[in-house]
Write a structure and sequence with these properties.
It is built from 13 helices and 8 strands. The protein has helices spanning 53-61, 81-95, 113-125, 142-145, 180-191, 229-241, 272-276, 282-294, 296-303, 305-314, 316-323, 328-332, 339-349, and strands spanning 2-9, 14-20, 33-39, 65-70, 102-112, 132-136, 166-171, 196-201. The chain has an 8-stranded mixed β-sheet, with helices on both faces.
Length: 356
Amino acid sequence: MNIEKIVLNEERNVTLTAYIQETEGRFDYIEKRPGMLIIPGGGYQYCSEREADPPAMAFLKAGFQVFILQYSIGKDAAWPNPLNDYEAAMELIQSKEGEWKVYKDKIAVLGFSAGGHLAACGATMAEHRPAAAVLGYAVTLGDMVKNCEETAPDVVSAVDRHTCPCFVFATRDDSVVPIENSLEFVTALAKNGVSFETHIYAYGPHGFSTGDTSVQYKDSHLCSRAPRWTEDSIAWLRDVLGDFGEKTMTAPVCPKHVTGDYDDYLSLECTLGYLRHCEKAAPVMEPFLKWLEENRQQVADHIGPAAGEITRREGIEGFWLMTDKRTLREILGNTDLSLEEQESLRKGLEKIENCP
């Protein structure tokens, strides 16, 4: 493994430390690796060493190329300096994809506390956004982050459908960064259809890092399950980025959005209710919707007894109630439409740009 330390801004003492693992050779099935950019916490006053190398070791073990950002702090932390530091780090990593053997489109970010705020800003408002974000007891609410850095922005309001998938973990009784920061952030993700996983552990102190006894006292009253966030987040990253395959990465099994309603183009992954009310989709959907209304009872019975009974009792409104939240792909799977008819519908939708 090669270790490099690059100065990104000498005046503000901003550095990026790169831990670059081997590829090819004894790893002859690996040409590149996914990347993880780690941003330690410290209230924008310092960068916590406990949230730098300790988590880096876990992601190195999982096969990532790992990078640690020491960003602008103290008097230099006025916005947008920290975000500019993040941009410079991500841009450098992407530019060195060949030299550092990292997938340019599979670089995630991990941030803790105030570093979690900066990581979340990268996920929501940066030019060089990560492919995924892991946020540990992160500050996201504007009125709370201003206790760390007065000029730092609110993140929750910046969440939109372009925000990357997020893994969010915290403890319920965190007395430094209240749990509302995590709860409101994931609520915003849900409203924008962004895929996420969250773990709110029952109890534990702020800043527990990996939760290992090497970085956290045994008597710190940390929930015994909290240290599992490392293995859980790595498994989640393999779901959203893909896992190691032969000379490549496998396809992700978890999409960026929970449905196609939030994607750039319409598709069979959109919900029926969304497509029913989408004016742009009308030319493609109207013939199918007419057929669906005429055959609603047959389709409802095929979906299940509850759908069939509610449709019989409530008519067309009951049918929409039972089907609007389902994807069009699922609905089609409960019809007797031919594969050719289904393919025609798919092709028609995928030509239509989405504007959710």
